């Protein structure tokens, strides 16, 4: 499944006007940051306005797998 998701991620710019940024596969969801080259209303979860905001989000995506054991959506949560 990871291979399929990674292939889809890499192919996005071939199908949509986007630039890829941070990306992380989690057990039951995916985190990613893309730059949208054609703006569409309601096409975002969070607008990244500053470099600090982008750095913070990249860091969250990077460390998120280490927090899975504590995630409320983890069916195996201790």
Average pLDDT score: 88
**Number of helical elements:** 2
Number of domains: 1
Distance between the termini: 25 Å
Strand content: 15-25%
Structural class: alpha+beta
Q: In what order do the strands lie side by side in the largest sheet? A: 1-2
Runs with pLDDT <50, length 5+? none
Largest sheet: 2 strands, antiparallel
So what's the overall shape?
Answer: globular
Instruction: Tally the beta strands.
Output: 2
Q: How much is the radius of gyration in Å?
A: 14 Å
**Helix-strand sequence:** HEEH
Helix content: 25-40%
Description:
With 78 residues, the chain is of the alpha+beta class. It has one domain (2-70). Helix content is 35%, strand content 19%. The chain has helices spanning 2-15, 51-63, and strands at 18-25, 30-36. The chain has a two-stranded antiparallel sheet. A hairpin with a 4-residue loop joins β1 and β2. The model has no long low-confidence stretch (mean pLDDT 88).
Features:
two-stranded antiparallel ribbon; globular; alpha+beta; 78 residues; 35% helix; single chain
